[in-house]
Specification:
The protein starts with 10 loop residues before the first helix and ends with a helix. It contains 15 helices and 15 strands. The longest helix has 16 residues. It has 452 residues and is an alpha/beta fold. The protein has an eight-stranded mixed sheet with strand order 3-4-5-2-6-7-1-8, sandwiched between helices. Strands 9-15-12-11-10-13-14 form a seven-stranded mixed sheet. A hairpin with a 5-residue loop joins strand 4 and strand 5. The protein folds into two domains: 206 residues, 3-Layer(aba) Sandwich (Rossmann fold); 213 residues, Nucleotidyltransferase, domain 5 (2-Layer Sandwich), CATH 3.30.420.280. It is 30% helix and 16% strand. It is elongated.
Protein backbone atom coordinates (compact mmCIF):
# COMPACT_ATOMS: atom_id res chain seq x y z
CA UNK A 1 0.00 0.00 0.00
CA UNK A 2 1.30 3.46 -0.88
CA UNK A 3 2.28 5.78 1.95
CA UNK A 4 0.32 8.94 2.71
CA UNK A 5 2.34 11.97 3.76
CA UNK A 6 0.40 14.93 5.12
CA UNK A 7 2.41 18.15 4.86
CA UNK A 8 3.50 19.75 8.14
CA UNK A 9 0.83 21.46 10.19
CA UNK A 10 1.35 24.88 11.72
CA UNK A 11 0.81 25.33 15.50
CA UNK A 12 -2.80 26.55 15.12
CA UNK A 13 -3.68 23.66 12.83
CA UNK A 14 -2.18 21.27 15.39
CA UNK A 15 -4.44 22.77 18.08
CA UNK A 16 -7.39 22.26 15.76
CA UNK A 17 -6.49 18.62 15.19
CA UNK A 18 -5.93 17.96 18.89
CA UNK A 19 -9.14 19.58 20.14
CA UNK A 20 -11.64 17.17 21.65
CA UNK A 21 -14.48 19.67 22.06
CA UNK A 22 -17.83 18.66 20.58
CA UNK A 23 -17.90 21.85 18.49
CA UNK A 24 -14.58 23.20 17.25
CA UNK A 25 -14.27 26.49 15.37
CA UNK A 26 -11.18 27.50 13.40
CA UNK A 27 -10.22 30.63 11.50
CA UNK A 28 -11.33 34.22 11.88
CA UNK A 29 -9.08 35.86 9.28
CA UNK A 30 -8.02 35.11 5.75
CA UNK A 31 -5.06 32.90 4.96
CA UNK A 32 -5.16 30.81 8.14
CA UNK A 33 -5.06 27.46 6.32
CA UNK A 34 -8.63 26.45 7.14
CA UNK A 35 -9.33 24.00 4.30
CA UNK A 36 -5.99 22.27 4.75
CA UNK A 37 -6.72 21.81 8.46
CA UNK A 38 -10.07 20.22 7.58
CA UNK A 39 -8.50 17.72 5.18
CA UNK A 40 -5.70 16.82 7.60
CA UNK A 41 -8.05 16.20 10.52
CA UNK A 42 -10.47 14.18 8.37
CA UNK A 43 -7.66 11.90 7.14
CA UNK A 44 -6.27 11.45 10.67
CA UNK A 45 -9.71 10.45 11.99
CA UNK A 46 -10.36 8.12 9.05
CA UNK A 47 -7.17 6.14 9.73
CA UNK A 48 -7.53 6.25 13.53
CA UNK A 49 -11.09 4.84 13.64
CA UNK A 50 -11.82 1.97 11.26
CA UNK A 51 -15.29 2.32 9.81
CA UNK A 52 -15.87 5.93 10.87
CA UNK A 53 -18.12 8.10 8.66
CA UNK A 54 -16.99 11.64 7.96
CA UNK A 55 -18.71 14.38 5.96
CA UNK A 56 -17.10 17.55 4.60
CA UNK A 57 -19.47 20.26 3.36
CA UNK A 58 -19.16 23.53 1.49
CA UNK A 59 -21.66 25.81 -0.17
CA UNK A 60 -21.29 24.47 -3.72
CA UNK A 61 -19.86 21.53 -5.61
CA UNK A 62 -17.33 23.71 -7.52
CA UNK A 63 -16.02 24.89 -4.13
CA UNK A 64 -15.70 21.29 -2.97
CA UNK A 65 -13.86 20.40 -6.16
CA UNK A 66 -11.49 23.35 -5.92
CA UNK A 67 -10.81 23.23 -2.18
CA UNK A 68 -11.01 19.56 -1.20
CA UNK A 69 -11.66 16.87 -3.81
CA UNK A 70 -8.61 17.51 -5.97
CA UNK A 71 -6.31 17.79 -2.98
CA UNK A 72 -7.71 14.64 -1.37
CA UNK A 73 -7.31 12.73 -4.62
CA UNK A 74 -3.68 13.80 -4.75
CA UNK A 75 -3.04 12.81 -1.12
CA UNK A 76 -5.07 9.59 -1.07
CA UNK A 77 -4.46 8.31 -4.59
CA UNK A 78 -3.31 4.70 -4.63
CA UNK A 79 -4.55 4.13 -1.08
CA UNK A 80 -8.23 5.05 -1.03
CA UNK A 81 -10.93 4.43 -3.61
CA UNK A 82 -12.72 7.54 -4.84
CA UNK A 83 -16.26 7.19 -6.17
CA UNK A 84 -16.78 10.19 -8.42
CA UNK A 85 -20.54 9.73 -8.65
CA UNK A 86 -21.07 9.48 -4.89
CA UNK A 87 -18.29 12.01 -4.09
CA UNK A 88 -16.87 9.63 -1.49
CA UNK A 89 -13.45 8.30 -0.47
CA UNK A 90 -13.34 4.75 0.94
CA UNK A 91 -10.34 3.84 3.11
CA UNK A 92 -8.82 0.33 3.36
CA UNK A 93 -10.17 0.07 6.93
CA UNK A 94 -13.73 0.85 5.82
CA UNK A 95 -13.73 4.51 6.87
CA UNK A 96 -15.54 6.98 4.61
CA UNK A 97 -15.06 10.66 3.78
CA UNK A 98 -18.11 12.03 1.99
CA UNK A 99 -18.11 15.39 0.19
CA UNK A 100 -21.43 17.24 0.13
CA UNK A 101 -22.59 20.73 -0.81
CA UNK A 102 -25.29 22.79 0.91
CA UNK A 103 -26.21 26.26 -0.28
CA UNK A 104 -29.78 26.20 1.04
CA UNK A 105 -32.16 24.21 3.20
CA UNK A 106 -33.52 22.58 0.03
CA UNK A 107 -30.08 21.06 -0.58
CA UNK A 108 -30.24 19.39 2.82
CA UNK A 109 -33.39 17.50 1.87
CA UNK A 110 -31.25 15.21 -0.28
CA UNK A 111 -29.33 14.18 2.82
CA UNK A 112 -32.29 13.22 5.00
CA UNK A 113 -31.45 10.08 6.91
CA UNK A 114 -27.71 10.67 6.56
CA UNK A 115 -25.80 9.55 9.63
CA UNK A 116 -22.17 10.49 10.24
CA UNK A 117 -19.80 10.48 13.17
CA UNK A 118 -17.92 13.66 12.33
CA UNK A 119 -19.08 16.68 10.32
CA UNK A 120 -16.85 19.39 8.87
CA UNK A 121 -18.58 22.60 7.76
CA UNK A 122 -16.03 24.54 5.75
CA UNK A 123 -16.88 28.28 5.63
CA UNK A 124 -19.73 27.96 8.11
CA UNK A 125 -20.66 31.65 7.91
CA UNK A 126 -22.11 30.88 4.47
CA UNK A 127 -24.99 28.86 5.99
CA UNK A 128 -27.93 29.98 8.11
CA UNK A 129 -28.62 29.03 11.71
CA UNK A 130 -31.55 26.85 10.60
CA UNK A 131 -29.24 24.97 8.24
CA UNK A 132 -26.71 24.47 11.03
CA UNK A 133 -29.40 23.07 13.33
CA UNK A 134 -30.49 20.59 10.64
CA UNK A 135 -26.91 19.60 9.87
CA UNK A 136 -26.18 18.92 13.53
CA UNK A 137 -28.80 16.17 13.33
CA UNK A 138 -26.57 14.27 10.86
CA UNK A 139 -24.09 13.59 13.66
CA UNK A 140 -25.39 10.59 15.52
CA UNK A 141 -24.86 6.86 16.00
CA UNK A 142 -24.62 4.15 18.65
CA UNK A 143 -20.94 3.32 18.08
CA UNK A 144 -18.03 4.53 20.21
CA UNK A 145 -16.57 6.85 17.58
CA UNK A 146 -16.12 10.53 18.53
CA UNK A 147 -19.14 12.67 17.66
CA UNK A 148 -17.87 16.09 16.69
CA UNK A 149 -18.61 19.05 14.46
CA UNK A 150 -15.75 21.15 13.13
CA UNK A 151 -16.41 24.51 11.49
CA UNK A 152 -14.12 26.94 9.71
CA UNK A 153 -15.09 30.54 9.30
CA UNK A 154 -14.25 34.11 8.39
CA UNK A 155 -16.32 37.12 9.44
CA UNK A 156 -19.22 37.86 7.09
CA UNK A 157 -21.95 35.99 5.30
CA UNK A 158 -25.48 35.00 6.29
CA UNK A 159 -24.23 32.85 9.14
CA UNK A 160 -22.09 35.58 10.69
CA UNK A 161 -24.40 36.18 13.66
CA UNK A 162 -24.75 32.61 14.92
CA UNK A 163 -21.06 31.79 14.46
CA UNK A 164 -20.10 34.97 16.30
CA UNK A 165 -22.53 34.20 19.14
CA UNK A 166 -21.28 30.66 19.72
CA UNK A 167 -17.55 30.96 19.06
CA UNK A 168 -16.60 34.63 19.49
CA UNK A 169 -19.04 36.18 21.97
CA UNK A 170 -19.59 32.81 23.70
CA UNK A 171 -23.21 33.55 24.56
CA UNK A 172 -25.15 30.35 25.07
CA UNK A 173 -28.76 29.50 25.73
CA UNK A 174 -29.95 27.12 28.43
CA UNK A 175 -29.66 24.11 26.11
CA UNK A 176 -26.05 24.83 25.12
CA UNK A 177 -23.09 23.75 27.24
CA UNK A 178 -20.23 26.30 27.07
CA UNK A 179 -17.71 23.51 27.64
CA UNK A 180 -18.75 21.94 24.31
CA UNK A 181 -17.31 24.86 22.30
CA UNK A 182 -13.74 25.81 21.45
CA UNK A 183 -12.52 28.41 18.99
CA UNK A 184 -8.99 28.54 17.57
CA UNK A 185 -8.16 31.87 15.97
CA UNK A 186 -5.86 31.66 12.96
CA UNK A 187 -4.65 34.26 10.50
CA UNK A 188 -2.19 34.52 7.67
CA UNK A 189 0.55 35.17 10.24
CA UNK A 190 0.08 31.59 11.45
CA UNK A 191 0.46 30.21 7.93
CA UNK A 192 4.20 30.35 7.20
CA UNK A 193 3.80 28.04 4.21
CA UNK A 194 1.49 30.53 2.49
CA UNK A 195 3.70 33.51 3.32
CA UNK A 196 6.73 31.73 1.88
CA UNK A 197 4.95 30.58 -1.27
CA UNK A 198 3.14 33.88 -1.87
CA UNK A 199 4.77 36.75 0.07
CA UNK A 200 2.73 39.27 -1.89
CA UNK A 201 -0.49 37.90 -0.34
CA UNK A 202 0.41 39.31 3.08
CA UNK A 203 1.38 42.64 1.53
CA UNK A 204 -1.96 42.81 -0.27
CA UNK A 205 -3.82 42.23 3.00
CA UNK A 206 -1.73 44.79 4.88
CA UNK A 207 -2.31 47.43 2.20
CA UNK A 208 -6.11 47.14 2.23
CA UNK A 209 -8.28 50.06 3.37
CA UNK A 210 -8.67 50.23 7.13
CA UNK A 211 -12.03 48.49 7.43
CA UNK A 212 -11.21 45.62 5.07
CA UNK A 213 -7.82 45.19 6.68
CA UNK A 214 -9.44 44.78 10.09
CA UNK A 215 -11.81 42.14 8.74
CA UNK A 216 -9.55 40.18 6.40
CA UNK A 217 -6.19 40.51 8.12
CA UNK A 218 -7.09 40.99 11.78
CA UNK A 219 -10.28 38.94 11.76
CA UNK A 220 -12.57 41.58 13.28
CA UNK A 221 -16.09 40.22 13.73
CA UNK A 222 -17.56 43.73 13.92
CA UNK A 223 -16.32 44.67 10.44
CA UNK A 224 -16.59 42.32 7.51
CA UNK A 225 -16.93 42.07 3.76
CA UNK A 226 -20.56 42.21 2.63
CA UNK A 227 -21.87 43.96 5.74
CA UNK A 228 -24.91 46.01 4.72
CA UNK A 229 -24.26 48.71 7.29
CA UNK A 230 -20.52 48.77 6.76
CA UNK A 231 -20.35 52.24 8.31
CA UNK A 232 -21.37 50.97 11.76
CA UNK A 233 -18.60 51.15 14.36
CA UNK A 234 -18.66 49.86 17.92
CA UNK A 235 -15.43 51.48 18.98
CA UNK A 236 -14.93 51.56 22.78
CA UNK A 237 -12.38 54.37 22.41
CA UNK A 238 -15.20 56.63 21.28
CA UNK A 239 -17.73 55.84 24.02
CA UNK A 240 -17.01 59.17 25.71
CA UNK A 241 -15.66 61.40 22.93
CA UNK A 242 -18.35 60.31 20.41
CA UNK A 243 -15.74 60.30 17.64
CA UNK A 244 -15.38 57.38 15.23
CA UNK A 245 -18.07 55.36 16.92
CA UNK A 246 -21.84 54.95 16.89
CA UNK A 247 -22.01 53.43 20.37
CA UNK A 248 -21.84 55.74 23.39
CA UNK A 249 -22.52 55.54 27.10
CA UNK A 250 -26.00 56.62 28.29
CA UNK A 251 -26.58 60.11 29.63
CA UNK A 252 -29.66 61.89 31.04
CA UNK A 253 -31.98 63.21 28.32
CA UNK A 254 -32.60 66.98 28.43
CA UNK A 255 -36.28 67.79 28.89
CA UNK A 256 -36.30 69.83 25.68
CA UNK A 257 -35.34 66.87 23.51
CA UNK A 258 -38.31 65.04 21.95
CA UNK A 259 -38.68 61.28 22.50
CA UNK A 260 -39.84 58.80 19.85
CA UNK A 261 -40.85 55.16 19.73
CA UNK A 262 -40.39 52.94 16.65
CA UNK A 263 -41.99 49.52 16.35
CA UNK A 264 -41.89 46.42 14.17
CA UNK A 265 -44.36 43.64 15.01
CA UNK A 266 -43.33 39.99 15.27
CA UNK A 267 -44.60 36.73 16.72
CA UNK A 268 -42.66 33.70 15.44
CA UNK A 269 -39.95 36.20 14.54
CA UNK A 270 -38.88 38.86 17.07
CA UNK A 271 -40.83 42.07 17.61
CA UNK A 272 -38.74 45.19 18.10
CA UNK A 273 -39.43 48.46 19.87
CA UNK A 274 -36.84 51.22 20.01
CA UNK A 275 -36.90 54.55 21.84
CA UNK A 276 -35.09 57.55 20.43
CA UNK A 277 -34.33 61.18 21.07
CA UNK A 278 -32.99 63.95 18.85
CA UNK A 279 -30.67 66.75 19.91
CA UNK A 280 -30.79 70.38 18.75
CA UNK A 281 -28.50 69.53 15.81
CA UNK A 282 -30.74 66.74 14.51
CA UNK A 283 -28.55 63.91 15.75
CA UNK A 284 -30.52 60.78 16.54
CA UNK A 285 -29.88 58.73 19.71
CA UNK A 286 -31.25 55.23 20.37
CA UNK A 287 -31.70 55.36 24.13
CA UNK A 288 -33.62 52.17 24.94
CA UNK A 289 -35.09 49.08 23.31
CA UNK A 290 -37.32 46.07 23.93
CA UNK A 291 -36.59 43.12 21.67
CA UNK A 292 -38.80 40.03 21.70
CA UNK A 293 -36.22 37.37 20.91
CA UNK A 294 -35.49 34.04 22.59
CA UNK A 295 -31.97 32.80 23.27
CA UNK A 296 -32.05 31.34 19.75
CA UNK A 297 -31.19 33.99 17.13
CA UNK A 298 -34.04 35.42 15.05
CA UNK A 299 -36.68 33.47 16.96
CA UNK A 300 -39.60 35.33 18.50
CA UNK A 301 -40.94 34.95 22.03
CA UNK A 302 -44.46 34.42 20.58
CA UNK A 303 -46.12 36.97 22.82
CA UNK A 304 -49.69 38.02 22.13
CA UNK A 305 -50.28 41.57 20.94
CA UNK A 306 -51.61 42.38 24.42
CA UNK A 307 -48.46 41.05 26.09
CA UNK A 308 -46.24 43.10 23.80
CA UNK A 309 -47.91 46.42 24.52
CA UNK A 310 -48.33 45.71 28.20
CA UNK A 311 -44.53 45.26 28.33
CA UNK A 312 -43.91 48.40 26.26
CA UNK A 313 -46.16 50.48 28.50
CA UNK A 314 -44.48 49.09 31.61
CA UNK A 315 -41.06 50.03 30.22
CA UNK A 316 -42.23 53.58 29.55
CA UNK A 317 -43.69 53.87 33.05
CA UNK A 318 -40.58 52.61 34.84
CA UNK A 319 -37.53 53.54 32.74
CA UNK A 320 -35.56 56.49 34.10
CA UNK A 321 -35.03 57.70 30.53
CA UNK A 322 -38.68 57.36 29.46
CA UNK A 323 -40.84 57.92 32.53
CA UNK A 324 -42.98 61.04 32.24
CA UNK A 325 -41.94 61.72 28.64
CA UNK A 326 -44.42 62.53 25.89
CA UNK A 327 -43.61 59.95 23.23
CA UNK A 328 -44.40 60.02 19.53
CA UNK A 329 -44.65 56.56 17.95
CA UNK A 330 -44.07 55.29 14.41
CA UNK A 331 -44.71 51.74 13.19
CA UNK A 332 -44.92 49.54 10.13
CA UNK A 333 -48.11 50.43 8.20
CA UNK A 334 -49.05 46.74 8.35
CA UNK A 335 -49.93 47.34 12.00
CA UNK A 336 -53.16 49.00 10.78
CA UNK A 337 -54.36 45.88 8.95
CA UNK A 338 -57.77 45.03 10.44
CA UNK A 339 -58.75 42.35 7.92
CA UNK A 340 -58.53 39.59 10.54
CA UNK A 341 -59.89 41.42 13.56
CA UNK A 342 -58.60 44.33 15.65
CA UNK A 343 -55.39 45.70 14.20
CA UNK A 344 -52.11 45.76 16.09
CA UNK A 345 -52.32 49.56 16.25
CA UNK A 346 -55.84 49.37 17.70
CA UNK A 347 -54.75 47.00 20.47
CA UNK A 348 -51.73 49.22 21.18
CA UNK A 349 -54.05 52.19 21.67
CA UNK A 350 -55.90 50.34 24.44
CA UNK A 351 -52.62 50.37 26.39
CA UNK A 352 -52.00 54.04 25.72
CA UNK A 353 -49.31 53.26 23.14
CA UNK A 354 -49.94 55.24 19.97
CA UNK A 355 -48.29 55.26 16.57
CA UNK A 356 -48.51 56.92 13.19
CA UNK A 357 -47.96 54.78 10.08
CA UNK A 358 -44.33 54.85 9.05
CA UNK A 359 -42.92 55.34 5.57
CA UNK A 360 -41.77 51.81 4.80
CA UNK A 361 -40.02 52.41 1.48
CA UNK A 362 -37.02 50.13 1.78
CA UNK A 363 -34.30 51.71 -0.36
CA UNK A 364 -34.91 55.32 0.73
CA UNK A 365 -35.12 54.07 4.31
CA UNK A 366 -31.79 52.31 4.12
CA UNK A 367 -30.27 55.37 2.50
CA UNK A 368 -31.42 57.44 5.48
CA UNK A 369 -29.71 55.04 7.89
CA UNK A 370 -26.53 55.04 5.79
CA UNK A 371 -26.56 58.83 5.75
CA UNK A 372 -26.97 59.06 9.50
CA UNK A 373 -24.20 56.53 10.15
CA UNK A 374 -21.76 58.35 7.90
CA UNK A 375 -19.08 60.39 9.69
CA UNK A 376 -18.32 64.01 9.00
CA UNK A 377 -14.69 64.95 8.50
CA UNK A 378 -14.13 65.11 12.26
CA UNK A 379 -15.51 61.63 12.82
CA UNK A 380 -18.99 62.47 14.15
CA UNK A 381 -22.10 60.64 12.83
CA UNK A 382 -25.76 61.66 12.97
CA UNK A 383 -26.89 58.50 14.75
CA UNK A 384 -25.76 57.17 18.11
CA UNK A 385 -26.74 54.09 20.11
CA UNK A 386 -26.50 53.72 23.87
CA UNK A 387 -24.35 50.81 25.05
CA UNK A 388 -27.45 49.40 26.76
CA UNK A 389 -29.10 48.71 23.38
CA UNK A 390 -27.35 45.37 23.06
CA UNK A 391 -29.63 43.82 20.44
CA UNK A 392 -29.15 46.75 18.06
CA UNK A 393 -25.39 46.45 18.54
CA UNK A 394 -25.58 42.68 17.95
CA UNK A 395 -27.87 42.52 14.92
CA UNK A 396 -27.06 45.58 12.81
CA UNK A 397 -23.47 44.51 11.98
CA UNK A 398 -24.64 41.02 11.02
CA UNK A 399 -26.92 42.12 8.16
CA UNK A 400 -25.73 41.53 4.61
CA UNK A 401 -26.67 42.59 1.10
CA UNK A 402 -29.42 40.86 -0.85
CA UNK A 403 -27.79 38.73 -3.54
CA UNK A 404 -30.33 39.87 -6.15
CA UNK A 405 -31.12 43.48 -5.09
CA UNK A 406 -27.88 45.37 -4.79
CA UNK A 407 -29.28 48.26 -2.70
CA UNK A 408 -31.40 46.12 -0.37
CA UNK A 409 -30.48 43.90 2.53
CA UNK A 410 -31.04 40.16 2.78
CA UNK A 411 -34.36 39.66 4.57
CA UNK A 412 -33.24 36.23 5.74
CA UNK A 413 -31.14 38.02 8.35
CA UNK A 414 -32.24 39.30 11.74
CA UNK A 415 -33.51 42.59 10.31
CA UNK A 416 -36.33 43.57 12.70
CA UNK A 417 -34.39 46.27 14.53
CA UNK A 418 -33.15 47.58 11.20
CA UNK A 419 -36.76 47.85 10.00
CA UNK A 420 -38.00 49.90 12.93
CA UNK A 421 -34.85 52.03 12.75
CA UNK A 422 -35.74 52.66 9.11
CA UNK A 423 -39.23 53.86 10.09
CA UNK A 424 -37.68 56.22 12.63
CA UNK A 425 -35.17 57.65 10.19
CA UNK A 426 -37.86 58.15 7.54
CA UNK A 427 -39.93 60.02 10.15
CA UNK A 428 -37.06 62.48 10.65
CA UNK A 429 -35.20 62.36 7.31
CA UNK A 430 -32.04 64.32 6.71
CA UNK A 431 -30.53 65.57 3.49
CA UNK A 432 -27.28 64.17 2.16
CA UNK A 433 -24.80 66.51 3.77
CA UNK A 434 -21.32 67.62 2.78
CA UNK A 435 -18.58 66.52 5.13
CA UNK A 436 -17.98 69.23 7.71
CA UNK A 437 -16.23 69.91 10.97
CA UNK A 438 -18.33 69.47 14.09
CA UNK A 439 -18.07 72.81 15.91
CA UNK A 440 -21.39 73.17 17.74
CA UNK A 441 -20.72 73.71 21.47
CA UNK A 442 -24.13 75.04 22.53
CA UNK A 443 -24.90 71.79 24.36
CA UNK A 444 -22.77 68.72 24.82
CA UNK A 445 -24.60 66.15 26.96
CA UNK A 446 -21.41 64.27 27.66
CA UNK A 447 -19.73 67.36 29.11
CA UNK A 448 -22.95 68.44 30.81
CA UNK A 449 -23.30 65.18 32.68
CA UNK A 450 -19.71 64.06 33.01
CA UNK A 451 -19.88 61.44 30.27
CA UNK A 452 -21.72 58.91 32.45
Amino acid sequence: MSEIRIPSLNPKQILFCKSKARYVGYGGARGGGKSFAVRAKAIILAFAYAGIKIMITRRSYPELEANHIRQLQELLGGVCLYNKQDKMFTFPNGSLIMLRYAASEDDLLAYQGTEVDVLFIDEATQITWDMFVKMKAFVRGVNNFPKRIYITCNPGGKGHAWVKRLFIDKKYDKNENPEDYEFIFASVYDNEALIKSDPEYLKRLESLPDRLRKAWLEGSWDIFEGSFFEEFDNNPDGYITRQHTHVIKPFPIPSSWPVYRSFDFGYAKPFSCGWWTIDQDGRLYRIDELYGCTDEPNTGVKWSVEQIFDAIKERENTSVLLKGKQITGVADPACWDASRGPSVAEVAGKYGVYFVPGDNKRIPGWQQIHERLRYDEEGYPSLYVFTTCEDFIRTIPSLIYDAHKKEDLDTNGEDHIADETRYMCMMRPIKARPLKTYTDTRFDPLNQFGGN
